[in-house]
Amino acid sequence: MSNKARVVVLISGSGSNLQALIDGVQSGELPINLAAVISNRPDVFGLERATKANIPTELLDHKTFTDRESFDRALMEKIDSYQPDLVVLAGFMRILTPEFTQHYLGRMLNIHPSLLPKFQGLHTHQRAIDAGESHHGVTVHFVTAELDGGPAVVQARVPVLANDDASILAKRVQRQEHVIYPLAVKWFAQGDLHMIDGKSVLKGEPLPASGFLISSDEP
Ligand code: NHR
Ligand code: GAR
After folding, report:
1. In whole angstroms, what is the distance from residue 90 CA to residue 44 CA?
2. H/E segment holding residue 175
3. 120 C-alpha vs ligand 1 centroid, how far in Å?
């Protein structure tokens, strides 16, 4: 018996953010029940991480569906069979239909590797470099129908350095991801974080549009 928040994690790849959640649970920092990990891609490392942590895994290969609607309906059924309180997108790479996002509205989070509203969509690290940004970062946000457009919960900034390429910059950003995602999930699990009238609310206080700001101590 456990009254901990039940969390289903959706992945498409390596699952380093999933690992940060697993580590949080195992260290006792993060009071959640990781109910299942679901991947839309076969043979990804994130599924191995889940198996090693004794978390049930599911594969739902989007390539076996004729359209987004039928994939999303099947995904919803799988997720709901685990009765989650929260759905966490952790490097999940399929755009979700409005029906899907509506069903989980206020109980689904995503981590997006940019300082939203900058650089919505894909290839964010290269785009930040190409735009000559002095800073880049990562945002946890509630998922709405608008791609990468839901209200921000927490944001971490990192510097863009002179000789950065996309992969070095991505690593610097990902170190912050592994700090802020467990934090946001913990807030939600403790009942401190809500989405109210399209805004993120933390401990009764509306958050700024950027979300709660964490600055890394690099230059
Ligand atoms: N769906 C909705 N409705 N709203 C959001 O905010 C979503 C979402 C689905 C995924 C994650 C997002 C990100 O953090 C996310 C947020 C995939 C794509 C994409 O273009 C864009 C944004 C995100 C995830 N996917 C391609 C597609 O056709 C496939 C790319 C691939 O498979 O490599 O779905 O950046
Ligand atoms: C993370 O950097 C995450 O921010 C990004 O993909 C990586 C997944 O890493 N997400 C997206 O780009 C969503 N479109 P992980 O699988 O090791 O957690």
Report:
1. 13
2. helix 166-189
3. 9
